[in-house]
Amino acid sequence: MDYTFIIEQSAPETWPGSTLWRDEWGSVGTFPDDQGLGSEIMRFRVPPRIMAKRLDALMEQYRSKPFVRVSPRETLGLKSWLMDHQYRLHERQVLMIWPARSSTRPPSEDVHEVLNVEQLARVNALDHRVFHDPVLEGADLHKELQRLQPHSRRLFYISVGDLVISAGGLSQMDSWALLWGGETHPDFRHHGWYRLIVEHRLFIAQDQWNVQFAATYANNETSAPILAKMGFQLWEMHEIYAPPHAITIPNLL
Predict the structure, then answer these.
(1) pLDDT tens, position by position, 189-198
(2) How far, in Å, CA of 26 to CA of 9, rounded?
(3) Are the C-beta atoms of residues 95 and 43 closer than 8 Å to each other?
(4) Distance (Å, whole) CA 221 – CA 92
(5) Neighbour count for residue 200 (Cβ, 10 Å)
(6) Contact at 8 Å (CB) between 167 and 156?
(7) What is the rounded distance in angstroms from the CA atom of residue 94 to the CA atom of residue 29?
């Protein structure tokens, strides 16, 4: 199965408030929201002869310089252009694939689904601590809650008292499912919480949504080794390049 082809045919997850753009060569990215968040180039596939000219013109359209994801299929010379323009390697991620299987662990009673604003605010507090995502309040929390839908986009968490210690999202993307936003509170790592919330999402994906496979973008040093032990296949390496003066990247996936 050509997993990458199937994945790239689906509409990508985007930062709320950002604007998706595409071009005739298959490039995809997002212009940022009013606060400059969600500035990203997810794919860049233009012919090499016009690469520099196209990048120069594209960068002028961004209010804040984008993070750039570089996969093995991007235009040859893209990384050299980025480094010549003071971009730096921010993170290595692995596209990992979990083929649908005949059995999965049943849902855990320790895993809960985000269904209201209060629960979402507690998950957002963990996102802020781990990923440095902005703190959502008021109308922004309600907008984010509205993005969650029982048959297409769900968010799960594990808590100890009022403290959310692990969380992760799941989106149905046509015939496959995307696991996104997986994180665990630093004080509760190495106790199996991350694995538990992954298993819960895999059960939903296969036993309720009946997808062909699940995919995720995992940090090469932290999440990827855990997922490999759970049966995920290391499919390909992606590199995330950060623009000059960038502090962090929003938790898009």
Answers:
(1) 999 999 999 9
(2) 10
(3) no
(4) 8
(5) 23
(6) yes
(7) 19
pLDDT tens digits along 33-70:
888 888 999 999 999 999 999 999 999 999 889 999 99
- pLDDT by residue (tens digit) across 130-155? 888 888 888 889 988 999 998 899 99
Residues 33 and 39: their CA atoms lie apart, in Å, by 8
State the Cα–Cα distance between residues 96 and 123, nearest whole angstrom: 24
Between the CA atoms of 71, 72, 77 and 80, what dihedral angle is there, to the nearest 10 degrees? 60
Give per-residue burial for 105-142: e unless 16+ CB within 10 Å, then b.
Answer: eebeeebbebeebebbbbbbbbbeebeebeebeeeebe
Separation CA 12–CA 3 (nearest Å): 14
Q: Give the length of the chain.
A: 253
The two structure tokens encoding residue 80: 């050299």
